[in-house]
Design brief:
about 180 residues; alpha+beta; single chain; 4 strands; about 30% helix; four-stranded antiparallel sheet
């Protein structure tokens, strides 16, 4: 990418990926971006699980009723975890790390998509957290925020349209009701 302005405009969620594996050096750069993400009090208390096993990816895709089925076809999923007892800002810290990974993936020419898991689940009442914890042997103290799907893009998405930016949602000084 030429600059951050362009990177932000180009990054779109991709839910369709080719079967091509992701280069190990690219995975390392994506994880480097996560590990360099800012955190509350510099705790760096997040944890990440890299998943590329097809059986596990299918199980992650079935951790909630809607919105995660495309994980089955992703070459890589990155599960973002936090410990709410250790860090009261675990959600925010995990979200910053997640978007840092997504921007790095885009810069590498890869596609990505956030799959919300916190607060989601199955119609029988089983939480996505419970399902994922069982699939990946996650300790009880950690909670699942999201899963980031990463892969080579199998579709093209147009860049963000500058003309559709909602500048009316930006308020200077004080909130101005329209």
């Amino acid at each position: 990418m030429e600059d951050f302005k362009t990177l932000v405009q180009q990054r779109r969620s991709h839910r369709k990926f080719t079967a091509e594996e992701i280069d190990a050096d690219d995975v390392r750069l994506i994880m480097r971006a996560a590990l360099m993400a800012p955190t509350s009090k510099s705790l760096r208390a997040w944890q990440f699980v890299l998943v590329d096993d097809k059986t596990d990816l299918e199980k992650l895709a079935d951790a909630k009723d809607l919105g995660g089925q495309f994980l089955k076809d992703a070459p890589l999923a990155i599960v973002v975890l936090g410990d709410p007892v250790q860090n009261d800002c675990w959600v925010e810290d995990g979200a910053i790390a997640a978007i840092s990974m997504q921007y790095q993936a885009e810069d590498l020419g890869l596609g990505s998509c956030w799959v919300q898991m916190r607060g989601r689940g199955l119609s029988d009442g089983t939480t996505a957290d419970t399902v994922i914890r069982g699939v990946l042997d996650i300790p009880d103290n950690l909670c699942v925020l999201c899963v980031i799907a990463v892969g080579h893009k199998a579709d093209e998405r147009k860049p963000q349209n500058e003309d559709k930016l909602k500048w009316e949602n930006v308020h200077a000084g004080k909130y101005n009701q329209l």
